[in-house]
Amino acid sequence: MLYGALEAGGTKMVCAIGDENGVILAQESIPTTTPDETMPKVIEYFASRVSPETPENERIAALGIACFGPIDVRKNAKTYGNILNTPKIAWRDFPMVKTMKDALGIPIGFDTDVNGSLLGEATWGCAKGLTDAVYFTIGTGIGMGAMSGGNLIHGMLHPEAGHLIMARVAGDDYKGHCPNHGACFEGMACGPAIEDRWGKNAKELADRPEVWELEAKYIAQALTDITMTLSPQKIILGGGVMGQSQLFPLVRKYLAEYINDYITTKELRNMNAYVCPAALNGNQGIMGAVKLAVMAAEAEEE
Ligand code: ADP
Ligand code: ZN
Questions:
Q1: How far apart are CA 256 and CA 277, in angstroms?
Q2: By the number of CB atoms within 10 A of the CB, which of 1, 35, 181, 215 ranks highest?
């Protein structure tokens, strides 16, 4: 069986066709500009896969969408499937699910981009078999997807753990990059915050140990808070900034220091596995979207 997958990001829409094993058979990127310009191209990509003229074995049974947010994931809400008050003005209130459902007429799965990435890793990657895990992306912004007891967490909206309030590291007087909070996690540790604080793009700071010491301390603070609240079995760190692989040992060191033996579990004793990079070679998001489609197809059958 084939499934459609859409990883809807702020800069590009990744459209793909995958099978029930998460194998991606075809993929195409479309720039994210405005809904009027972008969405007809996205629809066109999938439309040929639902047409009655398409041979049955080339048709998609459902579409999964892992979408930038904030988004409305409350199934019973009138605005379910809409993008909410994003800073990308053109996409505010855009009815993503309704648009795709009206165009394709197949079941649609819908969740946040970060829940999508986590779902990909929990189904086929480094969190396979786990019921409780989180995924952070640390890039242009910071977002977190979370799974608890085998279910992706939503809540009244969905988690926004990129905006955890941070304790300022001694000696750091950077005001912070978040328009709402200044010095929240994203405000202190996202890629643009690194660039703003140190005056150079994060990529060009690879040989400045003090940059990554400070970055690791903020990441470890957030991971401590998440360990204490959600009690995940694993924390996956992705996003452009985590391309600095020297961050991993530092984050693990400070996380152990901040937890300070308050909890002792077998997971925390194996820090290298507890805090780890994404394992699906950058395909965790699109593979997660395939799984969202599989789940939507199954839900429809019930
Ligand atoms: P996005 O968050 O927009 O989806 P990314 O996850 O690639 O995209 O994040 C982009 C941010 O990550 C930028 O601020 C960039 O400076 C930073 N970044 C990208 N690659 C690296 C790298 N190798 N080392 C450090 N920072 C990086
Ligand atoms: Zn914030």
A1: 17
A2: 215
* Contact indicator for 297, 289 with CB cutoff of 8 Å: no
Could you tell me the distance, in angstroms and rounded to a whole number, from the CA of residue 162 to the centre of ligand 1? Answer: 15
- Could you tell me how far CA 278 lies from the centroid of its own chain? 11
Strands 142-148, 108-112: parallel, antiparallel or unpaired by DSSP?
unpaired
CA 178/CA 96 separation, integer angstroms: 26
Q: How many CB atoms lie within 10 A of CB 145?
A: 32
225 three-class SS: helix
The pair of structure tokens assigned to 260 is 């300070």
Contacts of 9 (CB under 8 A, 6+ apart): 32, 68, 113
Give residues (CB < 6 A) around ligand 1.
9, 11, 137, 139-140, 191-192, 201-203, 239-241, 243-244
User: Six-digit token pair at 178?
Assistant: 């978040």
Q: Where are the beta strands (DSSP E) in 68-132?
A: 108-112
**Ligand 1 centroid to residue 141 C-alpha, Å:** 9
pTM, to two decimals: 0.97
Using most ligand atoms within 8 A of CB, pick from 198, 203, 250 the residue to mutate for ligand 1. 203
Ligand nearest to the Cα of 182, by number:
2
CA 101 to chain centre: 23
pLDDT beneath 50, residues of the chain: none
DSSP 8-state assignment for residue 190: S
Q: Where are the alpha helices (DSSP H) in 105-230?
A: 113-124, 185-189, 191-198, 209-230
pLDDT in tens, 242-287: 999 999 999 999 999 999 999 999 999 999 999 999 999 999 999 9
